[in-house]
Specification:
By secondary structure, the chain is an alpha+beta fold. It is built from six helices and three strands, in the order ααβββαααα. A three-stranded antiparallel sheet has the order 1-2-3.
């Protein structure tokens, strides 16, 4: 009889422990101390379009730009480009063949194709936290991207900071 009571109590205790561990799962709310990228992944950003640009033109005559669109508290779109002093878009020059990384430099893909891969990965991941940038500004994190991306990752972070 004692065995039966002990077994019943053990079963009751096990069931109550399992029931206590279950329950409805809730979405994490954005932490006030979360980074902008973590807030973006959690949906804690203000909707709108946020821009950032490099402070000056680089040695090749381009100024990098970033535009980040937030919708429903999450990153909906990212656009990177670089413009010349007379307003020419590096992305458009690349698309037209004038920039010619494949032809002139033997690259695996044109500049606009590579920057668009980076944009897509950032939207899919909800930020840049998983994109590791090496000292030379390049990354091995995004497949098919051999261009220097460090400046664009920094501009993304500056733009998204405005959405906090």
């Amino acid at each position: 009889m004692k065995k039966l009571v002990a077994l019943s109590l053990a079963a009751l205790l096990s069931v109550s422990l399992l029931a206590g561990c279950g329950g409805a799962k809730s979405q994490p709310s954005p932490s006030p101390t979360a980074s902008p990228a973590q807030q973006a992944q959690q949906g804690g950003l203000k909707d709108g379009e946020y821009k950032a640009e490099a402070p000056e033109f680089d040695d090749k005559g381009y100024k990098a730009t970033a535009t980040v669109t937030v919708k429903d508290g999450k990153i909906a779109d990212v656009k990177f480009d670089a413009v010349t002093e007379d307003g020419k878009s590096k992305k458009e020059l690349s698309k037209s063949g004038e920039y010619g990384m494949k032809e002139k430099g033997g690259a695996i893909a044109e500049w606009h194709e590579q920057i668009e891969k980076l944009e897509k990965v950032i939207v899919e991941k909800g930020g840049v936290e998983d994109i590791k940038v090496k000292d030379d500004g390049k990354t091995d994190t995004v497949s098919g991207v051999t261009i220097t991306v460090g400046e664009y990752v920094e501009l993304f972070e500056k733009a998204i900071e405005k959405a906090k």
